[in-house]
Design brief:
Residues 79-145 form the VWFC domain. Pfam families: IGFBP (PF00219), TSP1_CCN (PF19035), VWC (PF00093). It is found in: Secreted. By secondary structure, the protein is mostly beta strands. The chain has one helix at 2-6, and strands at 26-28, 35-37, 44-45, 57-60, 70-74, 81-83, 86-88, 93-97, 100-105, 108-113, 129-132, 141-144, 188-194, 203-210. The protein has one helix and 14 strands. Strand 1 (26-28) and strand 2 (35-37) form a beta hairpin. The relative contact order is 0.09.
Length: 225
């Protein structure tokens, strides 16, 4: 019945097919009549405006009011995870920003920092080190304040067993396992102790983690008068 109302025969399609944004292929509409741009993840959809099936997307009506369109979502959304309003597939590695990299796994996600979190202590050649944001670069860098504020060489993380320019002896890598997530659901953090820094000193490192989404709170019952 819906097809009879929305699909007209014969087809009347635009002479020139639409120009689709990058990553959105041309596909037949829900009536199998005209070429349309396939809807991408998170975009609105309905019977005529179909989702990109080559990406495993279907039109999800579960959270839409009755009689309205849906949203393009993965067919099996239970094994995905949502970060900042965007959905990622299970096993997908993504970067919410240039400073952090995350991994979606079993409905939750873990993140590790991409910027080094080392500690720079004063030294004879750099008595006043300071960490600053450098225009055009994602990660902050150490500079020697008072020495024309030139960035220090990026030698903060030496290879296992190598000699750091600040050390005169090898630094065998050592560290503890990552601790359990500090939260049972939602966003938390895990920590460990490691010596992989320019001074081969033990320091606490942290990374974000999320065991899974928190269950929705039950709706409050109306108070009867």
């Amino acid at each position: 019945q819906v097809c009879a109302q929305l699909c007209r025969r014969p087809c009347y399609c635009p002479w020139v097919p639409p120009r689709c944004p990058r990553g959105s292929p041309l596909v037949l509409d829900g009536c199998g009549c005209c070429k349309v741009c396939a809807r991408r993840l998170g975009e609105p959809c309905d019977f005529l405006h179909v989702c990109d099936q080559s990406q495993g997307l279907v039109c999800d009506y579960s959270s839409a009011p009755a009689g309205t369109g849906g949203t393009c979502n993965f067919e099996d959304d239970e094994e995905g995870c949502e970060v900042n309003g965007r959905l990622y597939r299970d096993g997908e590695v993504f970067q919410p920003s240039c400073k952090i990299q995350c991994h979606c796994l079993d409905g939750g996600f873990t993140c590790i920092p991409l910027c080094q979190e080392d500690v720079r202590l004063p030294s004879p050649d750099c008595p006043f080190p300071r960490r600053v944001e450098i225009p055009g670069k994602c990660c902050p860098e150490w500079i020697c304040e008072g020495a024309q504020e030139q960035p220090l060489p990026r030698d903060a993380r030496a290879a296992p067993g190598a000699v750091s320019p600040l050390l005169r002896y090898p630094c065998p890598p050592w560290g503890t396992e990552w601790s359990a997530c500090s939260a049972t659901c939602g966003l938390g953090f895990a920590s460990r102790v490691s010596n992989q820094n320019r001074l081969c000193r033990l320091e606490t490192q942290r990374r974000l983690c999320s065991p899974g989404p928190c269950p929705a709170l039950p709706a409050a019952l109306p108070v009867s008068g």
